[in-house]
Amino acid sequence: MFQWLTTEGSELKSHIPGSTNYITDGRNRKKYGLEGLPGDSKPFPSNPHFKSERILSEELRNDIYHRVVVKKQSVRAVSTDTGVDMRRVAAVCRLVELEKQWREQGKPLALPYARAVHEMVPTTKLQRDPRLQRERPHEQINDLPAHRLTDAQIFYPVSESRQFTRVDAGRVFSAAPARLRGDDQDDQPWEVVRDLNLGERRIEAVGKGDSEQRVLLPADVRIPHPHLITLESERAANPDSLRDVWRAHEKRLKEGNEAEEKRKQRKQEAHDRQVSRVQPRSSRFEFRIKDVVVSKETTGTDGRNAKAPGRRYGVPRSDRKKGQVKIPTYVLV
């Protein structure tokens, strides 16, 4: 050990600012020079399958907060431009806002610890060129978790002359009848999402009662950024007019954001119509009253359906019954 500390380990005593200090970095510096092997994120030499995940740099984190909070850009647009997942963009805005509140309250911040962590793990830098920022994303922003309906293996016979698409596969997984030929064949994914937000299209439902479920939409529609599919197809089809392609992409993104805002506004208005607000005089409390509709479609046959408030009113809980499992059997992530 002491021999390693005096030979190869001595190079790891002080690291180069702005880079990691892994054992593999010392070996790569000998082999590839002072810069080391670019893009190497394997800290353990004996475990090449483990890769160190990148974190956001301070500059990129502050730029995301400035775009969303100050410039009022949409989370979807910021996620597309910076290559950061929308959930991480929202988390960055919340954490930066919390950090500002702590500074105003005079609470101490663990800045030395943060600097040490940023020196230990690889970071994603803020690129001044927006094109480079998009070409070098921080993470995959269009990841889609596996849906529970796709777990089953289904053997569905299809004739060779029929064009079987992802839309048809979703209907098969949902046990929905086959669609007619020519229905929604040429619709782009972003057009489907826009029509759903505007209320011009509804997701078909199959089943009755408690067994009712929505038809599974194709993955191109369920991903966080369906407009990127159209962007890539147009870039491949029109490589000589990229400026027009990007203009059309920005226009689609703007239309999608406007449709999303209209959907949220329409949902809020529907909620306000169902709730009566009463605030007595000389009181700081406001009572919000919502009428409960007790029917088979809302509360269900056993009174425990989640489609209406007060679903357990007058119905005893089942946790006291014999044989009920009271320990958690799964964790919601």
TrEMBL record:
Superkingdom classification of source: Eukaryota
Coiled-coil regions listed in the entry: none
A single cellular component GO annotation: mitochondrial small ribosomal subunit
Listed Pfam families: Bot1p
Any Gene Ontology biological process: mitochondrial translation
Chain positions covered by the region annotation Disordered: 253-281, 296-323
GO molecular function, one term: structural constituent of ribosome
Sequence ranges of Basic and acidic residues compositional bias: 253-275
Annotated InterPro entries: Ribosomal_mS45
PANTHER family reported in the protein's UniProt record: 37S RIBOSOMAL PROTEIN S35, MITOCHONDRIAL, SMALL RIBOSOMAL SUBUNIT PROTEIN MS45
Name of this protein: Uncharacterized protein
